[in-house]
Amino acid sequence: MPPTTTAATVTQGPVDFAETPAAPGRDRAAIARNFVIHLRLRFQILLAPIFLWGFFLADGNVYAPDFWLAFVAFHLCLYGGTTAFNSYYDRDEGPVGGLETPPPVAEALLPLSLALQVAGALMVVLVNGVVAALYGVIFVLATAYSYPGIRLKARPYGGLLVVALGQGALAALAGWATAQGTLSTLTPLDWIGILAATLITGGFYPLTQIYQVDEDLARGDRTFAAVSGPRRTFTFALTALSVAAVLLIAVLGVRTGWGWAALVGVFYAALIGAIARWARTYDSAAVLTNFRRIMRMYTITSSG
Known about the structure:
Elements (H helix, E strand, L loop, with lengths): L27 H11 L2 H6 L1 H10 L7 H26 L18 H17 L3 H18 L9 H25 L7 H17 L8 H7 L4 H33 L1 H24 L5 H17 L1
Helix pairs in contact: 3-7, 3-8, 4-5, 4-6, 4-7, 5-6, 6-7, 7-8, 7-10, 8-10, 10-11
């Protein structure tokens, strides 16, 4: 599922290479190269800890073939495919989650993005029915997020809900279901862990929008950050991440011992402190600086 992006109007048609003969997407090699770039694979890897968290809660075995099949299907085919699908309609021109300089968009990007998602669907069917169903729900949400006829991304709470559920709760549940084959074995403690993952994803999402508010509004996308403004956006993010940290500490304390829980507490205290400092010094004109800052935070959080 794609993060929010910057671009020209979503109603704009695909690039007409007949009028731009020098366009890099004209030949097949360039189209293939740009398609891979539009998948934003490095960013998709940053989303992996949510899936892995669910898998960890379920005591999954990383050496099992089902794990690798589901992991590749979600992070390459589903997340990569939905991100490329989003790029087809958004026509990114400035920094976007995981990609500082987006390449041109070719007509082939749409069918290629859909084909990749179908390939992932065929893969998860081999895992189990629950994982396949979760894959399908995320696909529907991601399509509704980007497609101009629905465009949940353009609605402040619609986009936030899609990302928090699709990249948070449902992704963690997919990790669990990959290991367990069912959701019926989830305990109350596990559900608290799933809620923590949802809050982390939902808390970070508006921060990936905050550096591109002007372009979002120019495109007609009334994102959460655009409607809320910097102050409320940072307050929301800090609150969500603080609650998530408390829940994570509680779950880890019970599951693995309070030593690991304390380390996570120190990590999130430092992260929340860094975001609070950013909030105090935030400059809306420093688009590239803000983009790089949130990407560093995303990377550090995922690595932790």
